[in-house]
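Trying the structure run again after the queue cleared.
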Amino acid sequence: MKQKVALITGIAGQDGSYLSELLLNKNYKIFGIKKQNSDQNKYNNIRHILNKIKFVSADLLIETSLIDAIKKTKPDEIYNLAAQSSVAESWKNPIHTGEITALGAIRLLESIRKTNNKIKFYQASSSEIFGGSKKSPQNEETCPNPKSPYGAAKLYAHWMVKNYRETYNMFAVSGILFNHESPRRGLEYVTRKITHEAVKIKLGMSKELKLGNLDAEKDWGFAGDYVEAMWLMLQQENPKDFVIGTGKIHSVLEFVTETFNFLKLDWKNYVKIDASFLRPAETNLLIADITNAKKTLKWKPKINFKNLIKMMVAEELNFLSKNK
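Done. Tokens:
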């Protein structure tokens, strides 16, 4: 059997690292896209498998570079995980967010169309496309209503995937992923910020944790579970978009409480509310209806909320204890 080839953008990120591990276990040959002169420190998530990954130079801002990358690597599957993916940052830099998160996906789709439209394409969509939805839970038929530049950029890419699929008969799908976390999450995200700072407090390296809206509720799952759903989407006979999540919601306060409980600390002694961390526009209740993923992909999350936090806290303790 021919060895499958996957080309991944955002390979050094949280999702890219877990996806790479999954595909390596399935005997894929993996190419990661990286920009010239990229910061090597950004590759910490995949440092343990760097010798098993090949890299090709390309940039989501330059279509010709993407075409060259596809011609060089000849992938069977392309996973577009790269984006400016912070909602808060998207308010500060909406134009850059649009260029990377929205138009970057279109440049990839165009590159596939111009080289080999038989390549299967996965687009990382987001629950943020439903930001202002009045319907909850959300499924694949829910009317989009983004409430941030990030959500709007993801929606543009999401709709263009559908257009290319229908117009050019391409196997192009979007995974509408709800919040997914892990020890590899960036420190700019609230879950990792909570576990990181809480462990620093436990180790005497910090005295307080500043947060915004403790009442905000999210559907949180484990990134390692969600990348399996990405792969399954590209193994189907027919291309189709899927909502991926847990179907359960928890507040930021619950995340804080569980984190500090694992560390045997009272969060009330350390958590301070800082208005600068509040979003300009908070999303409505986002909770995934994963009926279709369960039925068609035979997928469901394995790691629950408490075990996710326990995993993240354990990794933080291990890392920070060694690097005080």
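The radius of gyration is 19 Å. Worth checking whether this holds up in the mutant runs.
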